[in-house]
Amino acid sequence: MNADAHPRLAWAITGSGHFLKESLELARRFPDVDLFLSSAGEEILSMYDYKLADLKKEFKVYRDNTASSAPVGLFYHGHYHGVVIAPATSNTVAKCALGISDTLPTNIFAQAGKRRLPAIVFACDTAPEVETESPSEWVTTYPRAIDLQYSKQLATFERVTIAESVEMLNLALQAHYSNLSHIQAHP
Asked: What residue ranges do the domains of the chain occupy?
């Protein structure tokens, strides 16, 4: 099957508000980004005053409304050059680490692995103490040992980069696009 002439970046949003605004700002800076929303991601966007209709003006948006996660079929046709999950809840990170793919974001993560595509995961729970923004205020959270364990486990996966901050997410994205340019320039 022929690969898409202009592959895109698949960007999943899960049910976390952890630097959601900053994650979306980064998504806007890079070309040809499609959003893949979990049901919880769609809820959290609303809680942080993001309107789905507005996002659809900027991105192709895929919603988690099919039992089989039908949009993952796009990965089989070379439609994507990589996957970003930002922000990623501890639930999503654990599912990805255990190979569970029962939401749209976990399904595209699994498909990226099966297609040998790079994935960048901005995990919410990577330190014993985390400052994060709730819909109304900044709060401190204390990830559980199991949350930290799954983030570390996911970091051992081939072609997976764990970003622990917005700055690390930006650097990982820049490296990804730099590598794409190099690959495209030297087939």
From this structure: 8-185
Q: How does the average pLDDT of the chain come out, rounded?
A: 92
Residue 185's H or E segment, with its range, is helix 166-185
Q: Which helix (H) or strand (E) holds 152?
A: helix 145-155
Q: According to DSSP H, which parts of 6-79 are helical?
A: 20-29, 39-47, 52-58
Cβ contact 146:139 at 8 Å = no
Angle, nearest 10°, between helix axes 166-185 and 20-29? 20
Q: What distance in Å separates the CA atoms of residue 34 and residue 12, rounded to the nearest whole number?
A: 8
pTM over 0.90? The answer is yes
CB 66 within 8 A of CB 39: no
Question: Is residue 146 within 8 Å of residue 128, measured between CB atoms?
Answer: no
Backbone angles phi, psi at 162, to 5 degrees: -100, 125
Looking at residue 182, its pLDDT comes to 63
CA 94 – CA 121 distance, rounded (Å): 12
What are 37-47's pLDDT values in tens digits? 999 999 999 99
- Amino acid identity of 4? D
Distances (CA, A) of 40 to 28, 167, 168: 21, 25, 24
Q: Is 19 left (phi over 0), alpha (psi -120 to 50) or beta?
A: left
Architecture (CATH level 2) of domain 8-185: 3-Layer(aba) Sandwich (3.40)
